[in-house]
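Bug: token stream looks shifted between consecutive jobs. Job 1:
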Amino acid sequence: MKTLFDPGSFSGRKKRALRCSRDWEPPAVEEVREGSPLQGAVIPGDRILELNGSRPRDVIDFLAAATERRIRLLLQRGGRIKRVRIRKEEGLPLGLTFSQPVFDGVMTCRNHCLFCFVDRLPPGLRPGLYVKDDDYRLSFLFGNFVTLNNLEREDIRRIVNLRLSPLYVSLHSTEAALRSRLMGGNGERGLEAMKILAEAGIKLHLQVVVCPGYNDDQALEGTISGALAAFRPVSLALVPVGLAHAEGEKRLRLPGREDALKVLRLVKAYREKSVEETGEGVVQASDEFYLLAGEEIPPAEEYDGYPQLENGVGMVRKFLDELDEERKRLKERAYCLPGTCLLTGRAFAPVMVEALEGVPGASPEVIAPVNRLFGESVTVAALLSGEDVVAGIRESGSRPERVLLTDSLLYDGRFLDGKTIQEVEMEAGAQLLPLPARGEALIRALAGIPWEHEEDGHPSWQGGRGIS
């Protein structure tokens, strides 16, 4: 079944700062798109008070209105109240964009997960990082993972009636008591919601954060088999817990190599079984498990179209394949501009070094800063702060003129600790050139060739200064 998703209805990006209050605020129209049936009747800046007699809760209400022939709006323009009535073709989108996806505030998390990243953030970071969203609407619109533990019956009915599919759900365990232990309660409620949604035909992408000593080994095997039987997920990704901590009986440790090897053996066995029974692999391990185990990254066909790419499942394989394809296309043009270094996380640095060995002329130093913000055990690039980047460049010993780094470190030009690109450049004494985490972007940057792909809001590499 088709969903109602029209990405033009929300102009923001997935990581935009979000309100977390549940107080409703009439949405302000940011843009009336060309071809909208409301052109001339609605203008940017209008606030929508009612849509077909009801307060709109989110952009999904406007998406659903595409199925209507008659549209009634009550809107506020300055100090005036205005009524708009139109007749339109059924299925024609309203063509309005808004700066926020939800108008009654984000549904926040009621859980107290042992491994909660937000709970362990140090003070002084960007304010938006402290919002603990658990909103099914953001899951549908942007692929945010939610627990479904906070759903009311009305929410479930709405998901089913509007076919808000797929949803991205944190499973962690199919055993209610263990799921509740990991989440601090309410685990059974989310499992019941998943069962209802799966039976109603809502597609689910599931993730399990593997915590050694809690939901690994036999418990993990039970979760995988239980999920495949009960929820028929589109994908089931296993990812390692990211932060260790010690709090009495709630002590968590990071997985080691042997833990990773056990996970990969389970993934292999269940993928083979799933392919034999259904023709689809479904079960996948995140890249971190392969890097931790020292195992080769699987070929692209084993990632089933990369359904959980932003969850770190297949990013390395996709990057390497893109890099290799662009290298072959450009042949001898992939030289490295003098004074250029690459900056990435410590986990990915060895992969980067090996990958660049086959690129003609590309021999830049790879800088892999220690994560001082969260601790040395955190090795992914996206969790490096501006201070970490400065220290890494200063300690590299090469004094680079320019540093290529993934734009996943940044939001609106700022790092996790709020430092701007310009501030880090001044402190590090080097020019920063953020790039999308794609192999072809890196090869082109090394060769000084403009990168013009702007999908998902990524900036363009323009050579010279680097960012337009």
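Job 2, same session, no restart:
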Amino acid sequence: MITRRDLLAGVAAFSGSAAASFMLPGRKAAAREVIATPIAHDTKKLFLDLAERPTALPCFNGHTLPLWTFQEGCLYPIVRVKLGERLDTVFKNDLPRPGEYTSIHWHGLRIPNDQDGVPFMTQQPVNPGQEGSYSFVPPDTGSFFFHTHCNTSEHFGRGLIGAIIIEGDEIEPPDAEYVLMMKDWRVSPDGKFLPFTTDKGAAKAGTPGTIRSVNGESTAVFKVPSSANVRIRFYNVDVTRISEIGFENAEAAIIAIDGNGLDPLPLVSWRMGPAMRVDLLLRTAPEGGTIQLVDYFAKEPVVLAEFISEGPAKRTDKFVATPLKVMPFQKVDVANAKHIPFIFSATATGAAVASFSESSGIHIGKLCLAKRTFWAINKQAWPGMTHKDLGPPLAVLKSGESYIFDLQNTTPDSHPIHIHGHTFEILSSNKPHVPPHRADTVLLRPNERIQAGVVGGAPGKWMFHCHIIDHQEAGMMGYIEVV
């Protein structure tokens, strides 16, 4: 059994080299990769109705709050698509507030730019009473999610989140699978929503919630098969919280990060910022036993979920995690890659831009803009541009060419940095805490410097931002242009 002490003692120095290793006691040599191929070619239809639905979640202690959700009777819809299937989505904006226009962003999916769902950047938003649509074939397997991309603090705060799972990555099917969505809620003692964002929070680590939850419960409880290998897709879909999850007294492995399979890593704990996902393979307890999933990053460890074993044992063999199939990503040509610095910093409070427009004539409305800017990327605060247009991109990439993003955090706060339409190939860090891996969101700790490889993807303008939503909406956002 690997302990948290083993983790601290066994992690190899992870700095300066793409070949740096991350070895823990008992980890085997990397297995030969198996490439995932399409398993279906049909079209899946999806209808989403964005509306206010008063809901009494178990974590609300008897109170009913006016949630905004994608589907009736469902807190977080889980959409499953097979690799190779086309997803045709129609959504209706039935949000109750006049002028509450919106769009849907498909977080982590490398889809065509015009399907990315960023209002005023890739599409006109959809006004209340109107419908919009998307149609694409997801190119990668894994655990992804979808959410709106305007007035995001409130939309997340009221529950407009859904999971999208692209199936076709399993070599050996698990005995069961569970989807866990971790999110805090900002609720007052008398059962009303508090302001979803505050200047104090936005200028620091983010505006914290008052109630913790997994799948709408204070502590989620799952009845699981005994002595079984179960897959857990864990999502951090909070707007602010950074967590460090692990199991108490259990054997488990990380099998995917942000949907991307990797050589399984024995799990002791894994730190996650907002929008990050991790797929775990857990060997459950014998019949009658319970395993707890814990957040160790809180002031005191918090039990997020319990897995209670029932029925006869499914397995008697030693726990060995089978890797997942992987996608045939183009590897970064490290030797010939162009290095681009991105410095994430705090900035003096500035006046917000009331309106500006793209050269195409798409006008950005005030709903997508914050009234203050506290953060910047390369000294450029979004949307504090020229008042006339989007301003210059943070970088221009050529499709198919290799780049190394030099991500530098000069602030005392952590920032989960997300890139649309691409994945990072994490190469190295000046802090020894993560192995090389592939992800669409990377947690940049205070004063950390990470080398992240990127291959220019589909042409278009792709958002690039911190996924602590307060930071995103107060300046730490921009875009990358691929030509």
